């Protein structure tokens, strides 16, 4: 089943650099997310490799016992060299994460096309997403991310190029506009005409960054204007609980949640808010330990060290938060984390 056939509501874990790695994605899926997305991945970096290897076609081996859609499934020796590249590492995912979308950023239509075709042929994810919403200074300074919302013609050309290069479901993650909220009402239909299967729209404009309240009115309005279309519209911005999901989804096909999941993958769990405080704590401790084991299994000791920021977030607002913060920053393995959890 294609991910665009998921029944309403689609519950998407929105990508966040440094947070939504494989371990965290698995945790969120176990709590109820039914669609995942990789962190931002450079289309230029993949295209650079793919353009060198165009004459050497690599095919993914089908092996039901293989856990990863990565170099272990790809026989070509050149790709095995590419696996050492940080960009490749960001693309790795486990079969249990399906359906998962690979998100690309860049600005050159040809490079997007090369990257998308390579990803489909070698990794077989559930879809490709084009980032047209990231407001980070480094990204914007390179004319990537949300700048494709400013330069709509280029944004449309990128979509057309990717649509021609891949048969995978294609989405665009973007914002209401560069300067005003109404831009999406013009840009959205252009992207749909160019071939997207879904739009994931954050309820702020570029200059807002992540400040102020998100505004969903034009996201709902766009959906109402394309009711006859099969294109999915997913809203994003300021959801902080499962109740918030139900309140926000409205006429949309689903919601995407990013920052609201940090320390709280339970946001996808419809039963979590109804649990007693003791049951919530027990589930949290069990989930944290599983998260730690996954992080170590996938990344080794580095994964546990990277997990520290998650550990601090899990107990934000807890009565022992200050004490736990000191203990969690000194953890370097699963046993260390287990010892701290036993004290809570």
Automatic annotation (TrEMBL):
It catalyses: a 5,6-dihydrouridine in tRNA + NAD(+) = a uridine in tRNA + NADH + H(+); a 5,6-dihydrouridine in tRNA + NADP(+) = a uridine in tRNA + NADPH + H(+). It comes from Candidatus Berkelbacteria bacterium CG08_land_8_20_14_0_20_39_8. Residues 52-76 are annotated as: Disordered. GO terms for molecular function: flavin adenine dinucleotide binding; tRNA binding; tRNA dihydrouridine synthase activity. InterPro entries: Aldolase_TIM, DUS-like_FMN-bd, DUS_fam, tRNA-dHydroUridine_Synthase_C. It is an enzyme of class 1 (oxidoreductase). This is tRNA-dihydrouridine synthase. PANTHER family: TRNA-DIHYDROURIDINE(47) SYNTHASE [NAD(P)(+)]-LIKE (PTHR45846). Residues 63-76 have a biased composition (Polar residues). Its cofactor is FMN. Keywords: Flavoprotein, FMN, NADP, Nucleotide-binding, Oxidoreductase, RNA-binding, tRNA processing, tRNA-binding. Its EC number is 1.3.1.-.
């Amino acid at each position: 089943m294609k991910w665009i056939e998921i029944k309403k509501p689609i519950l998407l874990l929105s990508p966040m650099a440094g947070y939504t790695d494989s371990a965290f994605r698995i945790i969120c899926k176990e709590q109820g997310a039914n669609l995942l997305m990789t962190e931002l991945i450079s289309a230029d970096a993949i295209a650079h490799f793919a353009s060198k290897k165009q004459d050497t076609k690599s095919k993914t081996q089908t092996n039901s016992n293989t856990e990863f859609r990565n170099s272990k499934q790809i026989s070509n020796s050149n790709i095995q060299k590419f696996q050492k590249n940080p960009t490749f590492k960001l693309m790795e995912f486990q079969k249990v994460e399906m359906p998962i979308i690979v998100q690309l950023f860049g600005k050159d239509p040809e490079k997007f096309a090369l990257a998308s075709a390579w990803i489909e042929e070698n990794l077989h994810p559930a879809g490709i997403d084009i980032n047209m919403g990231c407001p980070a200074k480094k990204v914007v300074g390179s004319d990537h991310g949300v700048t494709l919302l400013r330069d709509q013609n280029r944004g449309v050309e990128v979509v057309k190029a990717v649509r021609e290069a891949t048969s995978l479901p294609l989405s665009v993650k973007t914002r209401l506009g560069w300067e005003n909220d109404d831009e999406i009402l013009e840009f959205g239909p252009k992207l749909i005409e160019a071939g997207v299967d879904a739009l994931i729209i954050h309820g702020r404009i570029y200059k807002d960054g992540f400040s102020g309240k998100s505004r969903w009115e034009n996201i709902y309005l766009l959906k109402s204007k394309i009711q006859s279309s099969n294109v999915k519209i997913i809203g994003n911005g300021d959801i902080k609980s499962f109740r918030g999901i139900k309140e926000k989804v409205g006429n949309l096909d689903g919601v995407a949640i990013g920052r609201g999941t940090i320390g709280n993958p339970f946001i996808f769990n419809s039963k979590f808010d109804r649990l007693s405080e003791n049951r919530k704590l027990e589930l949290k401790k069990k989930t944290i330990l599983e998260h730690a084991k996954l992080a170590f299994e996938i990344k080794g000791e580095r994964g546990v060290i990277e997990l520290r920021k998650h550990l601090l977030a899990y107990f934000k607002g807890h009565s022992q938060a200050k004490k736990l913060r000191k203990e969690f920053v000194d953890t370097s393995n699963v046993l260390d984390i287990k010892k701290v959890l036993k004290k809570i």
